[in-house]
Amino acid sequence: MTPFELYNPTKLIFGTESYLRISHEILEGAKVLLTYGGGSIKSNGVYEAVMKELKNFQVIEFGGIEANPTFETLSIALDIIKKENINFLLAVGGGSVIDGTKFLAAAALYEGDSWDILKKGIRVTKALPFASVLTLPATGSEMNSGAVITRKETGEKLGMGSPVLFPKFSCLNPEVIKSLPQRQLKNGIVDAFTHVLEQYMTYPIGADLQDRLSESILKTLIDIAPKVIFEPYDQTIASNFMWCCTMALNGLIQKGVPTDWATHMIGHELTAKYHIDHAMTLAIIFPNLWRYKFENKKEKLAQYAERIFNVNTGSTEEKAEQAIQKTLEFLHSIDVKTQLREYTENYNGFSDEVKQTFETRNWIALGERKDITPEDVRKIVEMSC
């Protein structure tokens, strides 16, 4: 294992009565901006439950944060924060709402053009306090300090992060899964699954516990995915699903190990261009990235085949091939499409566009070995079409 530091100050409040803690966790006298997305929280009971706990606080609402939160929409909320002297933010939604709220927390105290936080990769050193009420398990944003924001004007989708951008607390009630459509449930499963893979599918480094932690999340997600997506609500299954999504990206399994994240960086370009759901872009890219970087990843692929899919015969290369095939079978079994052509007919020339974008941004050394170039990205995207 490599040396590491682990820091995660988020207080996680898990369970069907988690909302009852909201009023106890926010400082008395806070002026709260309540952020949310398309308004589903007003039809599934979450809004009513949260507002009941905020009855003793001054609250201003800001809805309409998109599934891929945009700088343009968030800039409107930022003006409200400054005009109304907001001093606490409460995100009620999925990862996109929480990500957008992290940007607002950082931008509210940033002196200068707030887009620079993303464009220049600035790690802010101060932010407004904020918390989250999770309504869609997927991204782990409820217990990490990262966010991804899109700028419609330029077609950019960029990440940000800072140790000051952990939620103060997050409320996780597994009952919210009852109201989620299959599309969002599939997104949640695939998003969490790929988050683990980005931190696991690299090369052996002797991090035995980290591998086992990652594998336990992967195996649990595979086992529960059909039940989560296709069967009636079950609280035990829902609880395991929600906890897997949080554990997949709360910083724990990445410590002491190499990480990849090239799939995410490429996938963001598919979302920016075609508006494909983020999780689905990951399913399009990572199997082909594995094929392209097969020699780099074959040892971990073989280990994954053995431990997750019980593939116990054959050479390292044969087991690694089986790992890719069985992962695709899993994705297809939950009705996830894994080629770009299944989402759009307008993909000719896109691989060249992505290469150009990566060259312009000077993203020239991606992956766990820093050996994925823009030309490699072009080839991976071409394979994924």
Task: Kindly describe this structure.
The chain has 385 residues and is an alpha/beta fold. The protein has 14 helices and eight strands. It has two domains: 165 residues, 3-Layer(aba) Sandwich (Rossmann fold); 203 residues, Dehydroquinate synthase-like - alpha domain (Dehydroquinate synthase-like, alpha domain, Up-down Bundle), CATH 1.20.1090. The protein is 47% helix and 11% strand. A six-stranded parallel beta sheet has the order 1-8-5-4-2-3, sandwiched between helices. Strands 6-7 form a two-stranded antiparallel sheet. α6 packs antiparallel against α7, α7 crosses α8 and α10 crosses α14. The model has no long low-confidence stretch (mean pLDDT 96).
Summary tags:
two-stranded antiparallel ribbon, Dehydroquinate synthase-like, alpha domain, Rossmann fold, alpha/beta, 385 residues, 2 domains, six-stranded parallel sheet
List the helices and strands and how they pair.
Elements: E1 11-14, H1 22-25, E2 31-35, H2 46-53, E3 58-62, H3 71-84, E4 88-93, H4 95-107, H5 116-119, E5 130-134, E6 146-151, E7 156-161, E8 169-172, H6 182-200, H7 208-230, H8 235-247, H9 262-274, H10 278-292, H11 294-309, H12 316-333, H13 350-360, H14 374-384
Parallel strand pairs: 1-8, 2-3, 2-4, 4-5, 5-8
Antiparallel strand pairs: 6-7
Name the average pLDDT: 96
Known CATH architecture of the largest domain: Up-down Bundle
- Low-confidence parts lasting 5 or more residues at pLDDT below 50? none
Number of helices: 14
**Helix content range:** 40-55%
The CATH C-level name of the largest domain is Mainly Alpha
What does the main sheet amount to? 6 strands, parallel
Give the termini separation.
36 Å
What is the total tally of β strands?
8
Domain unit count: 2
- The backbone outline, from C-alpha atoms, is globular
Report the radius of gyration as a whole number of Å.
20 Å
CATH topology of the largest domain: Dehydroquinate synthase-like, alpha domain
CATH superfamily of the largest domain: Dehydroquinate synthase-like - alpha domain
Trace the largest sheet across and list its strands.
Answer: 1-8-5-4-2-3
Please state roughly what percent of the residues sit in beta strands, choosing from under 5%, 5-15%, 15-25%, 25-35%, 35-45% or over 45%. 5-15%
H/E element order: EHEHEHEHHEEEEHHHHHHHHH
Oligomer description: single chain
Structural class: alpha/beta
